[in-house]
Amino acid sequence: MTFQITSFLYIIALWFPWVESQFPKACVNLESLRDKTCCPTPNGFKAPCGTDGDRGECQDLIVRRWNKAYSHYQEFHKGDDRHNWPNALFNRSCKCKSNFAGYDCSKCKYGYHGDDCNQKRLLKRRNFAKLTNDEKHRYMSYINKTRYVDSDYVVSRSSYQEIQDRTVAGQDPTSLFHNVTVFDLFVWVHYYAARGPVHADNLTGTVMDFAHEGQGFLTWHRLYLLAIERTIQEVTEDEEFTIPYWDWTVNEDKCEICTEDLLGVTEGDGTVKGKYFNDWSTICTYEDTLMTQMCDPATKNPVLERLKESDKKKMKENGYHMTFPSKKDVNFALRFDTFDLPPYSADSSCNFRNLLGGFINTTTGYRLPNVHSLHNRVHLVIGGAMSSSLSASNDPIFFLHHSSVDRVLEKWLRKYNKNASVLSSYDAPLGHNRGDLIVPLFPVFTHENIFKKSFEFGYDYEDVDEEGNSPDDEESSLSSLGLCPVVRNKEPDDTVEKCTTCVIIASILGGIIFFLLISLSTIAYRHFHKPLAVQPLS
Ligand SMILES: *[C@@H]1O[C@H](CO)[C@@H](O)[C@H](O)[C@H]1NC(C)=O
Ligand SMILES: *[C@@H]1O[C@H](CO)[C@@H](O)[C@H](O)[C@H]1NC(C)=O
Ligand SMILES: *[C@@H]1O[C@H](CO)[C@@H](O)[C@H](O)[C@H]1NC(C)=O
Ligand SMILES: *[C@@H]1O[C@H](CO)[C@@H](O)[C@H](O)[C@H]1NC(C)=O
Ligand SMILES: *[C@@H]1O[C@H](CO)[C@@H](O)[C@H](O)[C@H]1NC(C)=O
Ligand SMILES: *[C@@H]1O[C@H](CO)[C@@H](O)[C@H](O)[C@H]1NC(C)=O
Question: Which Pfam families match (predicted)?
């Protein structure tokens, strides 16, 4: 299901020439936009980027340009507003020195704190279910708080052209940007990365998702969690706060943390009710963003929805596995020492990244249409906002889920001790390559910057040791890779063997892609004749 439908909908959706963006308030003024420079002066300093305190300097922001060297590149990509992001609005930004960080160098790098940012710190992300009652409520009340505090970033639905035209004409462009709450900013950022191309004249079922279905999926979400975790620490003035993880493997098909006083219960009509959900609202939901108009952060949907029992039943009848992923599924993924394989998208088989993402069958190791396992399965079983990659982070369970996904990534990184050299530089979808920027987090990071053990960023996971093992891991004697070829203990220069594998996989993929194209039309046809409660996954 997933993006075959989305893509099809994009073809028939109305094309608005609008685009969106999010940048620090301090950079959204006539002067900064005209000079394409986002180098604010931090509080307590006199010069941009705190140069007078040796914190950083305002420098050209060099981004990797999209071009034909990328194997996933297509002409229409040029028309998307995220093209060479964020160059359409800014091409100069603060380059911070030593351990300083942030868009104005007023903050510390992840993992450091103190006035001079020279104290290292390691915080633990903990299992939500094992927290004390007070700690569980701390998460909920902190999230609640972010829904009432204004962000220091603003978002825009106007086209870059419109913004530029205004600044060139010397008019104040501020009114084209909107204030949002901290929580809505993060919902927006996820939506912005995941939504399809806007100027897609020749769209032929193409996905353009900077956060999902590609090599960069795990690093994108790792940075996203770091950013919101840091922001929650700031908003609540609780420097020690970490995002807990929800270990869904202990649930069969019922979410045990979804109780009235914590993550809420789902009513018969799919509405989430509970202590923290009485005044919940959502933005950028599937209906808003796909069929009628681009997301307007000011348009609030007054409810949060999850999958209702009747739809769950229907989906089961339609052949969906409606149980949460098991430890067995996680363990299977962790046996793959190959991080990713061509085409580095949702269509690759026999690799850790796409297994954890959830497009691969955890028995065979192969990608097949309509397989939803691991990460995807959790989105599907929770349903509602969570079942669409555009709206998923409206649900506070999203962050607990992704913390759990990130924990599995961390186990992999520690187990196999690999670095970013395993990432492809040109053959992953746009925005997912090793040196590509993680769109649209600002200040900017590349996937390579983030593909590192969590110690580098000052956090650790409860129950994961330095080798990536946990007390409840499987016996190390289990080693089945399903139907995948066993390519173990490769020498660094066994190119011949690697390429043989590539060729085999490429031909299998060829078949699968053909099959996908067939199912695209079938599914799209079915969708319009018998709407299902299934939406694209995140
Ligand atoms: C940044 O943008 C400005 C305005 O369009 C342009 O004059 C300048 O050459 C650009 N700088 C870089 C490094 O691209
Ligand atoms: C947005 O917030 C700023 C303060 O950060 C305020 O000055 C401005 O008036 C707000 N804009 C709107 C449209 O509410
Ligand atoms: C779309 O395809 C047509 C015909 O192939 C071509 O003339 C046109 O330039 C294409 N438009 C874009 C934006 O690629
Ligand atoms: C959420 O925050 C608002 C604003 O601070 C507060 O009025 C409300 O009581 C909070 N909700 C809960 C359940 O704590
Ligand atoms: C995975 O493949 C196995 C063997 O073909 C099959 O029995 C199982 O139902 C598949 N699982 C999913 C989730 O599709
Ligand atoms: C990354 O790993 C490769 C292969 O194991 C190794 O050759 C390289 O030196 C490593 N790079 C860094 C920066 O550690």
Answer: Tyrosinase
In ligand 2, the atom with minimum distance to the C-alpha of 178 is: 13
Q: Which ligand is nearest to the CA of 362?
A: 5
- Sequence-distant (6+) residues with CB within 8 A of 519 are 4, 369, 370
**361 touches ligand 5 (CB under 6 Å):** yes
Residue 383 backbone class (left: φ over 0; alpha: ψ -120 to 50; beta: rest): left
Spatial CA neighbour of 474 closest among 355, 352, 331, 369: 331
Distances (CA, A) of 2 to 8, 365, 396, 524: 11, 19, 22, 11
Strand partners, 156: 21, 177
> 255-270 burial, b for 16+ CB within 10 Å, e for fewer?
bebbeeebbbbbeeeb
> β-strand 92-96 against 177-181: which pairing, if any?
unpaired
Q: How close is the Cα of 202 to the center of ligand 3, in Å?
A: 6
**95, 54 contact by CB (below 8 A):** no
* Cβ atoms 142, 241 nearer than 8 A: yes
Task: Evaluate: CB of 424 within 6 angstroms of ligand 2.
Answer: no
CA of 448 to the centre of ligand 6 (A): 12
pTM for the predicted model, two decimal places: 0.88
CA 201 centroid distance within chain: 26
Check whether 299 has a pLDDT greater than 70: yes
Tell me the C-alpha distance between 22 and 1, whole Å: 30
Distances (CA, A) of 56 to 33, 97, 490: 20, 5, 42
CA distance 412 to 405: 11
What distance in Å separates the CA atoms of residue 220 and residue 538, rounded to the nearest whole number? 12
Ligand nearest to the CA of 421: 6
Q: How far is CA 347 from CA 71, 193, 343, 407, in A?
A: 15, 19, 7, 23
Tens of pLDDT along 309-339? Answer: 999 999 999 999 999 999 999 999 999 999 9
Nearest to 188 by CA among 95, 114, 275, 284: 284
